[in-house]
Design brief:
Elements lengths: L15 H8 L19 E10 L10 E11 L4 E6 L5 H9 L6 E6 L2 E2 L7 E4 L11 H6 L8 H14 L15 H13 L5 E5 L7 H17 L3 E5 L3 H7 L2 E6 L11 E7 L11 H13 L15 H7 L7
Parallel strand pairs: 3-8, 3-9, 6-7, 7-8
Antiparallel strand pairs: 1-2, 1-4, 4-5, 9-10
Helix pairs in contact: 4-5
This protein binds adenosine-5'-diphosphate and magnesium ion (MG).
Length: about 325
């Protein structure tokens, strides 16, 4: 598998394949077909389970992380995935993208099983993972499908930078921009592929609260302009309620049973057109339900008295995001 140039500054120990999926539509290791514009696909999870071999033990002691995940995500749906740290959210996204394989069951995109890194998906992560020596425009261009003609590519990049409000910064380098702008660039790069399925793994988790709210609005605009099926992992209940058509809560059915994997404990259909009123009583009730599902009971003051964003993020502030 080809690796990115050594000069890349890695902010974490993410596997190289992930970075290629985020950053390069033209990597020879990724099966690429020119992306079909504006295709939106359903995603089906059929009895998906995943176990990892416990370190230092025999494979027979495999530790289950996910089990029995069954779900139909409809084309164009925004599905938020909530769950405590380590419950398998990222693993589920990685299986969807073909970056990892299910131990049992399968994921189908538009009826076709995912097998190997899937060019129909694009990934964006908590860290923007931009190439520091390249301009923002060149970073976005890395997401274009292989074989995109030069002029068409330039036009597409300009269009995407405009969509994320960065046209004036096209020639800037990542070090010259803020964290929010870097994350917008990362989103534009993921969209450059015209993905049928957009996988977002806590994409706004590292941003300050205000920037995060702006990014949530931006994601809604982007989704309205270029509909795609979105799987969004977040640890922020309010973010889930603001952005998603449905929210699933992953967790073990019996919290004390560490030998069983996490499954879908709760599915919440979020009412109302987006953008939603963050302070609505209806959302406050759902917020309480989801927080309770995460093992956090609201204290004293009722949730409906709070300003939405604060309760969700504040209440979860002590939860590690990854
Ligand atoms: N490649 C791997 N090998 C072994 N264990 C892993 C691997 N990837 C993830 N895990 C374990 O699986 C569990 C779920 O991880 P992850 O999907 O990253 O959780 P989340 O994203 O919900 O925080 C964690 O306990 C993690 O340590
Ligand atoms: Mg994770």
């Amino acid at each position: 598998m080809p690796t990115l140039p050594d000069t890349e500054l890695r902010t974490d120990a993410a596997p190289a394949a992930e970075e290629q999926m985020a950053a390069s539509g033209s990597s020879p290791s990724i099966h690429t077909s020119p992306a079909r514009p504006n295709t939106v696909h359903p995603v089906s999870f059929v009895s998906v389970g995943k176990s990892f071999a416990s370190r230092g033990k025999k494979a027979t002691n495999a530790r289950p992380v996910l089990r029995d995940i069954n779900l139909e995500v409809v084309p164009g749906e925004v599905l938020a995935i909530l769950g405590t740290s380590g419950c398998g959210k990222s693993t589920l996204l990685r299986i969807t993208a073909g970056l990892d394989t299910a131990s049992v069951g399968e994921v189908l995109i538009d009826g076709t099983p995912v097998s190997g890194i899937d060019a129909r998906c694009a990934f964006a992560f908590q860290e923007p993972r931009l190439l520091p020596w390249r301009s923002l425009a060149d970073n976005v261009a890395l997401g274009l499908p292989a074989g995109t003609p030069k002029q068409a590519g330039r036009e597409r990049v300009a269009e995407l930078l405009e969509l994320v409000g960065l046209s004036e910064f096209a020639g800037h380098r990542p070090r010259e921009i803020s964290g929010g702008m870097a994350q917008r660039t990362s989103l534009a790069r993921a969209l450059a592929r015209n993905p049928a399925v957009l996988l977002l793994d806590e994409p706004f988790g590292a941003l300050d609260a205000l920037t995060r709210l702006k990014m949530q609005d931006l994601l809604l605009e982007v989704h309205a302009a270029a509909p795609t099926t979105v799987l969004l992992v977040t640890h922020d209940v309010d973010e889930a309620l603001q952005l998603a058509d449905r929210v699933i809560l992953l967790g073990r059915e019996d919290d004390s049973d560490s030998d069983s994997g996490a499954t879908i404990k709760q599915i919440v259909t979020v009412p109302g057109e987006r953008p939603r009123n963050r302070a609505s009583a209806e959302l406050a009730t759902l917020r309480d339900e989801l927080l309770a599902g995460l093992g956090i009971e609201p204290h004293g003051a009722s949730a409906s008295n709070s300003t939405g964003a604060d309760l969700g993020s504040g209440a979860l502030a002590s939860m590690p995001s990854r």
